[in-house]
Amino acid sequence: MDYYLILAAGESGIASEPVGADGTSSTIVPDKQADPNGTAVAKKKPFGGMQIVFLALMLVMMYMILFRGPRKKQQQHKQMVRELSKNDKVRTIGGIIGTVVDIKGDEVILKIDESNNTKMRVSASAIGRNMSKEGGPQ
C-alpha cells in the first residue's frame, strides 16, 4: 500500500504533520479507495498527455497569429515595392498621393503636383499602396 504525505501551506510557510520514528505520519492517504460494496478500487490518475497536446496547439496558434501573419504581409509589401515602375500612381503611408517619376535603389521620386512640377523623394518602404495596380481611385 502506498502512502502520501500531505503538506499544508500556512502563513509561515510549508508545514507538515509530524512523522514518527518508523517513518509513518498521522495523516496518510491510501492509494486505493473503497467503493460502497467494500471492494478496493484504484484511484484514477489524471492523464497529462491531453494537457501537453492542448499546450502545443496553443503555441502553434500563437505562432500563426503573432509571427506568420505579419511576415506574410511584409513579403507582400516588398513584392509590391519591387514591382513599382515609372508612371505608377501610389499613396505613401503618410497619405501623400503621387506618380512615380524615378526609382533609385531604396528611394522613389514622386511627382505630387502637376501644375508646379513638385517632386518629392521618399523611401521605398514608405510606399503604402500602388493605386495603379490595385484599381484604386485615379
Question: Which properties best describe this structure?
Answer:
138 residues, alpha+beta, SH3 type barrels, five-stranded antiparallel beta sheet, 2 helices, 11 strands, 28% helix, rod-shaped
Overall description:
There is one protein chain. The mean pLDDT is 78. The protein has a domain at 83-134: SH3 type barrels (Roll). It is 28% helix and 36% strand. It has helices at residues 49-82, 131-134, and strands at residues 3-5, 7-10, 13-16, 28-30, 32-34, 40-42, 89-92, 97-104, 107-113, 118-123, 127-130. It is α+β, with helices and mostly antiparallel strands and 138 residues long.
CATH topology of the domain at 83-134: SH3 type barrels
Q: How are the strands of the biggest sheet laid out side by side?
A: 10-9-8-7-11
Q: What share of the residues does DSSP label as strand, in percent?
A: 35-45%
- Mean pLDDT, to the nearest integer, reads 78
Largest sheet: 5 strands, antiparallel
Described by the principal axes of the CA atoms, the overall outline is: rod-shaped
Q: What separation lies between the terminal Cα atoms?
A: 84 Å
| Quaternary structure type | single chain
Number of helices: 2
Classification by helices and strands: alpha+beta
Number of strands: 11
Under the CATH scheme, which architecture of the domain at 83-134 would be assigned?
Roll
Rg is 35 Å
Residue stretches low in confidence (pLDDT < 50, at least 5 long) are none
Order of helices and strands: EEEEEEHEEEEEH
- Helicity range: 25-40%
CATH class of the domain at 83-134: Mainly Beta
